[in-house]
Automatic annotation (TrEMBL), chain A:
Record protein name field: Cytochrome c
Keywords attached to this entry: Heme, Iron, Metal-binding
Pfam families from the UniProt entry: Cytochrom_C (PF00034)
Residue stretches making up the Cytochrome c domain: 76-166
Organism: Flavivirga rizhaonensis
From TrEMBL, chain B:
InterPro entries: Copper_CuA, Cupredoxin, N2O_reductase_N, Nitrous_oxide_Rdtase_Sec-dep, Nos_propeller, NosZ/Cyto_c_oxidase_sub2, WD40/YVTN_repeat-like_dom_sf
Official protein name in the record: Sec-dependent nitrous-oxide reductase
Highest taxon above the source species: Bacteria
Gene name for this UniProt entry: nosZ
Cell inner membrane is among the record's keywords: no
Protein species of origin: Flavivirga rizhaonensis
Keywords for this protein: Copper, Metal-binding, Oxidoreductase, Signal
GO MF term set: copper ion binding; nitrous-oxide reductase activity
E.C. no: 1.7.2.4
Amino acid sequence: MKKTLNIAMILFVSFLISCGGKEEKKKEGFSYEKKAPTEQKIKKVESLPASKQIDLDNKGIGPISSISLASEIDQTMANHGADVFKKMCAACHRPDKKFIGPAPKNILSRRSPEWVMNMILNPDEMVQKDPLAKALLIEFNGSPMANQNLSEEDARAVLEYFRTLK
Amino acid sequence: MKNILKSTLALLSVLVAFTSCNNASKSNSGALSSSAAEKVYVAPGEHDEFYAFISGGFSGQLSVYGLPSGRLFKVIPVFSQDAEKAYGYNEETKPMLNTSHGFVPWDDSHHPDISQTNGEIDGRWIFINGNNTPRIAKIDLSTFETTEIIEVPNSAGNHSSSFVTENSEYVVAGTRFSIPIPQKDMPIKDYKGNFKGALSFISIDPEHGHMDIKFQLIMPGFDYDLSHPGRGKSHGWFFFTTYNTEEASTLMEVNASQNDKDFIAAVNWKKIEEYVNNGGGTMMPANYAHNVYDEATHSATSTMKKEVRVVNPLDVPGAVYFLPTPKSPHGCDVDPTGEYIVGNGKLSANLTVHSFTKMLAAIENNKVAGDAYGIPILNFEDVLAGVVEQPGLGPLHTEFDGKGNAYTTFFISSEVVKWKLGTWEVVDRQPCYYSVGHLMIPGGNSQKPWGKYVVAMNKITKDRYLPTGPEVTQSAQLYDISGEKMELLLDFPTIGEPHYAAGCPADLIKPRSKKLFKLEDNKHPYAALSEADTKVVRDGKTVHVYMTTIRSHFAPDNIEGVKVGDKVYFHVTNLEQDYDVPHGVSMIGANTSELLIMPGQTETFLWEPKQVGVWPFYCTDFCSALHQEMQGYVRVSPANANTPLKWSLGEDIE
């Protein structure tokens, strides 16, 4: 009994020492399965998170069936789009890093322009029916893409702004 | 044996055929005559045909029901604080309840009336009176929110209110109790001849509905009980019932019931308006609040007005007449043509109906029977159109179906009685459970009622529902009046004690109902219109938090540098721009209600931290799958601490 106590004491003290060494990198209160086990990731190499998957053929579901982008970026439209983005989207999206929702940077290398606009204009139906949007909802903790009631014109301007994010 | 079996089988099959046949014919007849349940059934997801706005009585509010289902949709806070909606609790709406007596958090709301154009309900605004501390409120029917309240000076027991003329020129507010005008310290027993009753004509701005007291008619010291506008041929006149023409000031139930006849006061407001427009009347010192809610700033302001125009009826000859009406008339109701004025003499065995045409003729022929304080009294017989003989006991109110029928409530005999205008014959009667007060036919106070249903608002409930202790809910009843006989369809509970209601087809209001407030139109001085605008600003001991909400976080959600003894104003803007995504917020220990913020709106609550610590706040309206995660902390340091003011959201995010 005494021995076990001693061992426990030693373990405890060594734990304290290892912990106390660096103030900044304090261990969390517990670490039980906080992150998904890494083996699973290795097993399923083929299933990338939805935010990293590339699907340029899927046009999504909503009012936009086809748009064509000019080769040059319309800077005036992009500036307006940046303004709309700042007012209506920035609460959940940072241009170049994951926040509440995914970052729009390089979005057009992963999604069709129609899909992007439909996701802005028709998010409720998209997260119910579009496989990618459904997967994104799960990837982002069930945080819904809010319908901010943008006009098609404003949504198009936001898309133009996204083209500048590279 | 076989034979027996066979014949039994045959007999059985005949029997089966017979019974099934019988069943079929039964169900056929059932489908032909639809049941009361079918008439009030509104299938899930379907909408009601009518809106009914039923006053909340001593709750001070206005409730919104659907007809025929009797389903409650909303309680609109008007004269009383409502913690659910932060009305009268948040900084924006506190000024709505300001009066000359200071902040008054309650009133007794009585008679809603919807605005009209050309004598028909237009569904733009609804007005309702506060009875106790005299006020008139305007509710905007595009937002179902109270947007204006005006106090009525020189008034007490604001009961013959708030009825709207046929082009919404005026909403009219008459005093029930007469008082010294101006108020002064005097013996109560000197009431007679010294107390006066003010009838206030409040103009309505045609575009925004803003209210302004155009003039007050200073009448003899009677009790002005109820009123209604003339319409059609009688447009330009207003009619008020009176009681206590005895001018008693004590033991009223005896002393105010002595005279055989009291009066209906007929007021030619067009004539007085003309007199006032030409500079008539005098400005008298007064003190009354005018509170206006601005939809752009989402905020109300209260202004104290310092004078009011008063008119002595004797200065405008031909503007006011008294029509003798038996026994303390209560309701004063004008039929859709404007010809008949019903005086519901509550202590009379008969129902008295005056004729507008006969009244004009009597005035023209100068048939005056006497005067009261110089106001001419016409002969009862000269103005009488007819009498409904012994229809019931204790008549209170009458409504009309637009098909030549009138419906009167009888409190003592507890029934609604249908009778014919012109022939005065009783057509039908239906019992009420129990002791009905007001009744309402959608559009009943207009030239064009929709005579399909009548709602009876009962004063006594007793055993109509499962008991809930000594205090039980109020009880309303819905009758189908589309046929010759009335048919009781439904009982449904109501809030407070309803006094009158107003209704109209849903199609008049539904298409205009707002779904959200546009962020770009938000002009609130403390709005943060994007997360980039969020900040915390200290100004001495006052701290302003410019906060935003969107599914599912507050920005900022961590605040430090607040100290004990600070006054912390949380100005919270809901950045959502989608229908039905409100967010709520409150702070531990806040001495006020939560906020409930509609999309695009900004609201403010005050928190005065009293204890050092780290205190949480959270979203109080379930907004999304991550609603439980919508929370934050404020660090409160001692009053003398130097903790720097800091705010953040998601700084540790990758």
